Amino acid sequence: TYKTQNVRGTEDYYSYNVSLGGDWVINNKSYLSFNAALRGIPTESMEKGNGTLKNDVFTTDYHIQNHTKSSSWVNVYNLFHQYTFSKDVTLENTLNFTYNWNDDQEEQNEKGTDYLYKNLMRNKTDVYTGSYTAVIGKSFDKSALEIGNQLQYERMDLKQPSSTISNNFTHKRWKEYLYADYIYNGAPFSFSTSLGWDLTFNEVEGKKKNYSRLKYSLSMDVELGKNGGVKLFSRGYTVDPSSAYLNPYDTSTDSLLIVCGNPSLMPYYYKEVGLAIGYSFGNFYFWPQLVYSHCSDMI
C-alpha cells in the first residue's frame, strides 16, 4: 500500500499565568509567608488536506481533517510559618497543595469513495498532591540538629475514552518520612548525617500494598591543606514506581501493541558508598571518585 498526503494546518497557542504571594512578620518570634500560582496552556490545531491511497487492486482519493486540542492547568499553593523559641531553637511548618489537570484530544478523519478511517484518542489526567512538613531545629557552636516529619498524599486519576476501548485508572499514595539530621562544620574535619524511616501506603485500583524502608545518608570531609580534600559518603533510599508502571490497563495507542503496568511493583531500594579525593593546581583541579552501588527490586 502506497499512501500520500498533502495537508495544511493552523495552530493556536495560549499561556496564562497568575501568581500571588506575600509575607508577614507577625512579631520578633513569628514569621508567615504564602504564595499561590495558577498557569494554563491551552493549544488547538486543525489540519485539512487531501490524500491518495494506492495498491495492486485500486487507487482512491480521500479528504483529510485532523483536529488536536490540549488543555493543561497547574495550581500550586504554599504556606510557611516559622516560630523562634530562642536564639538557637526554631520550629518550621510548611503546607503545600498542587493540582495538575490535563486533557489531550486527537481526532483523525480520512474519508474517500471506497475508503474510511477514523481514530479518536483522549487522555484526561487529574493529579492531586498535598504535603505537610514540620521541622524543629537547634543550632550549637559548630553544629546543628534537625528533627522533622514529612507527610504527603498523592492521587492520580487517568481517563482514556477512545473509539475502541475506555480505561479509567486511579492511584493513591500516602507517604510519611520521620527523620533526624545532624551537621558539624569544623576544620579540618566536618560531617553530616541523616537517619529516617520512610513509609509508603499504596492503593492501585483497590489493591493495597504498604512498604517501609530505612533511609540514611552520611558524608565526611577532611581538608588536606589549602588545595585538597577527601570525602567519604554513603546513602540509602527508596524510589517509588510511577503511576505509568503501576497502571494495569492497556495504555498504548497502537491497536497491535499492549502496554500495561503491574500494580504489585515494589519501590526499589538504592544503596551506595563512595570515596572522592580532590586536589587543585591554580585554576586546574581533579576529583577522582570511586563509588560502589547496589540496587534491589529495580524496575
Q: Which structural class should the secondary elements be placed in? A: mainly beta
By DSSP (H or I, 4+ residues per run), the number of helices equals 1
Number of strands: 15
Tell me, briefly, the overall form: elongated
User: Largest sheet at a glance?
Assistant: 15 strands, antiparallel
Helix content: under 10%
- Helix-strand string: EEEEEEEEEEEEHEEE
Terminal CA distance:
40 Å
Task: Please mark out the parts with pLDDT under 50 across 5 or more consecutive residues, or reply none.
Answer: none
- On the 0 to 100 scale, the average pLDDT is 90
Radius of gyration: 28 Å
What share of the residues does DSSP label as strand, in percent? over 45%
